[in-house]
Design brief:
By secondary structure, the protein is mainly alpha-helical. The termini are far apart. The chain is 45% helix and 10% strand. Strand 1 (55-58) and strand 2 form a beta hairpin. It is built from six helices and six strands. Helix 1 (5-20) packs across helix 2. The protein has a single domain, classed as Orthogonal Bundle (Arc Repressor Mutant, subunit A). The model is unreliable at 175-181 (pLDDT under 50). Keywords: DNA-binding.
């Protein structure tokens, strides 16, 4: 069982929206460009998200989308169910008619309870993760990447007229400081 593109893209787009809505409504074109998701696909997803009252839309110049609720009050399960993403590991779709015996009667297969329990645990987990949790994780990741970039800064130092190329040697110094070699 896999979460399909629809659910993954909806969650990704909602994280993008939540991270940027403080500046006003966010356009789907901007999300599309940043996340490399088709604009027409985002339009379909956001139509469903709007119908489930997870996002609000603003028309006209300066328009776009914003969250309809606080990010801490939106769960990943809310987003996935809003875009009609099925989360079902059973082969019967939860109908308990997974197997058919020689007598023609249908019933639960031997592993039905295993998969039904997995379904419940997945929903419980996705319901325990808020959009704000994902935004916070993303912000921490961005800060770590920015710190790593600063710490691994490479600086070119010109060594003067004796160097025919006019370029110096590349030196990396922790903390981003440059040292002449």
């Amino acid at each position: 069982m896999r979460l399909t593109t629809k659910g993954r893209f909806a969650v990704t787009a909602m994280i993008d929206l939540a991270m940027r809505q403080h500046s006003g409504p966010v356009t789907l074109a901007a999300i599309s460009q940043r996340q490399n998701i088709s604009l027409s696909y985002l339009e379909q997803l956001f139509g469903k998200l709007r119908r489930h009252e997870l996002v609000d839309s603003v028309r006209g110049p300066g328009g776009g989308y914003s969250l309809a609720r606080l990010a801490r009050n939106v769960t990943v399960a809310d987003i996935i169910f809003a875009v009609d993403e099925p989360l079902d590991a059973t082969s019967c779709g939860g109908k308990q008619d997974c197997t058919s015996g020689k007598d023609g009667k249908s019933g639960k297969c031997m592993t039905h309870e295993l998969w039904a329990t997995l379904n419940r645990k997945m929903v419980d987990y996705l319901d325990s993760v808020s959009l704000q949790d994902l935004v916070d994780q993303q912000r921490v990741r961005q800060l770590q990447e920015a710190n790593n970039t600063t710490q691994n800064c490479t600086v070119r130092v010109n060594r003067g007229p004796g160097n025919s190329s006019g370029a110096g040697t590349a030196t990396t110094v922790p903390g981003g400081a440059a040292a002449a070699v």
